[in-house]
Specification:
This protein is of the alpha/beta class and 414 residues long. The protein has 2 domains: 110 residues, Golgi alpha-mannosidase II (Immunoglobulin-like, Sandwich); 270 residues, Alpha-Beta Barrel (TIM Barrel), CATH 3.20.20.80. Strands 1, 10, 11, 12, 13, 14, 15, 16, 17 and 18 form a 10-stranded mixed beta sheet that branches. Strands 2-3-4-5-6-7-8-9 form an 8-stranded parallel beta barrel, surrounded by 5 helices. Helix 9 packs parallel to helix 10. The longest helix is centred in the first third of the chain and has 24 residues. The radius of gyration is 25 Å and the shape is globular. It starts with a helix and ends with a strand.
């Protein structure tokens, strides 16, 4: 009797489990029924939130280049068709305080459009430096307070003229040995300045803007509680390196921004590689991507005022992934030549997918627990400039999007 009772109980448990599975499989029309079958599918997990996105942008270095015109400002920071949708403008802090105000006109216009303004010094004033020159040398240890006051004066000037600064840098590329405005800083010097002087600048301060994201320049400051408290975010450049995560910055709650990169190559292959660079920065937990000159033949806007191919590539991110979005986990490389990232802000979902191959790709997507019914599509390729497509319909959390050969496609939920 006892053995028979056990058999009957086990049988009922199996039947019960099957019943539960059958009930769970009975879903309402339009709800998620499960992932698509077959290999190469991309899953987007809206409940797996990663870093916040602060935006995308480029530099306007007045004095080294002509200031932006009103038309260029609209093209760069507007969000309509044929515009870039940038939300970050990077400025140069001149060593001569008499030149501070040259930054005001374009920065004020950009700020009125909701743009975040950051600013970087290439050198302290020569009289503060070890070699008395604007090139090379180091900041004298007895001039740290004066240098903080110099940075504060710049921020105060901009604010008083209607162009408040979101954050200022300590130094552009402190590890670069160059023949133009520059200054060397080491980790100990950054630690001292961030701990003892950064708070007196009056606006948030970021650092170290290494030319190749050399973490050793910021490790010491991040590891010191007093210094870290004064670090707004970690900025760095991508020359001679590839994007990678910065675990220490994440551990102490600091965002990481890519604040400068350029590529002189204007071929389509190089422009598509810019999309791959942005993709990899986002996967490396970076919150911002900032190109070098906004207006330049190799930049997003050419000297003829026309948006370049690189500009359209960048707009695939900047127009649709707006400040305040969060990146969410997604299958980063679902099949050969396809690379993607995904983002959300409330109910809005944006997916940016690259196809670096020479043939079109039908990419399957699966979004668990989603109520999205359709996506608009926009594509940039050798023959398209952020061109809106026919869109795709979502059924049961699944859909398929066709990615053009050698292209970047942005999918924006409805």
């Amino acid at each position: 009797m006892k053995r028979g009772f056990q058999f009957t109980w086990r049988f009922l448990r199996v039947i019960g489990s099957v019943s539960i599975l059958l009930i769970a499989g009975c879903t309402k029309k339009g709800s998620v029924t499960g992932p698509p079958t077959g290999t190469g599918s991309a899953a987007v997990y809206l409940d797996s939130t990663q870093q916040i996105i602060r935006g995308f942008g480029a530099a306007n270095i007045v004095g080294w280049r002509p200031d932006m015109t009103p038309a260029q400002i609209q093209t760069a920071f507007g969000t309509g068709p044929g515009q870039l949708g940038f939300t970050i403008m990077r400025l140069r802090i001149p060593p001569d305080s008499m030149e501070f105000a040259v930054n005001v006109p374009s920065a004020k216009s950009a700020y009125s459009m909701g743009v975040t303004i950051i600013a970087t010094p290439w050198t302290p004033p020569a009289w503060m430096k070890s070699n008395g020159s604007l090139i090379g040398g180091t900041l004298n240890t007895n001039e740290y307070a004066a240098y903080a006051a110099h940075l504060k004066s710049f921020a105060d000037t901009m604010s008083a003229n209607g162009a408040p600064i979101y954050a200022v840098s300590v130094q552009n590329e402190p590890d670069a040995n160059v023949g133009y405005e520059s200054c060397f800083w080491n980790a100990a010097q950054f630690l001292t300045f961030m701990k003892n002087n950064a708070a007196s600048v009056g606006v948030p301060v970021f650092m170290p803007e290494s030319m190749n994201f050399n973490h050793s320049l910021s490790d010491a400051a991040l590891s010191d509680a007093g210094a870290a408290a004064n670090i707004a975010f970690v900025g760095g450049h991508l020359y001679g390196t590839s994007p990678s995560k910065y675990p220490l910055a994440a551990a102490v709650g600091k965002e990481v921004w890519m604040t400068e990169y350029l590529d002189l190559d204007t071929t389509w292959a190089a422009n598509l590689e810019t999309a791959r660079s942005i993709n990899d920065c986002m996967l490396s937990q970076m919150s911002a991507y900032v190109w070098w000159y906004i207006v330049r033949y190799y930049g997003p806007i050419g000297e003829n005022d026309a948006v370049t191919k690189r500009g359209y590539v960048m707009s695939q991110y900047a127009r649709f992934v707006r400040p305040g979005f969060y990146r969410v986990s997604a299958t980063a490389n679902p099949q050969a030549n396809v690379f993607l990232t995904a983002y959300k802000n409330g109910p809005k979902v944006v997916i940016v997918a690259l196809n670096t191959g020479a043939s079109p790709v039908d990419q399957k997507f699966y979004i668990p627990n989603s109520t999205i019914v359709s996506f608009e599509t926009y594509a940039t390729s050798a023959g398209k400039n952020c061109l809106q497509g026919s869109g795709v319909t979502v059924s049961g959390g699944t859909f398929t999007a066709t990615l053009d050969p050698s292209s970047v496609t942005t999918l924006v939920s409805n």
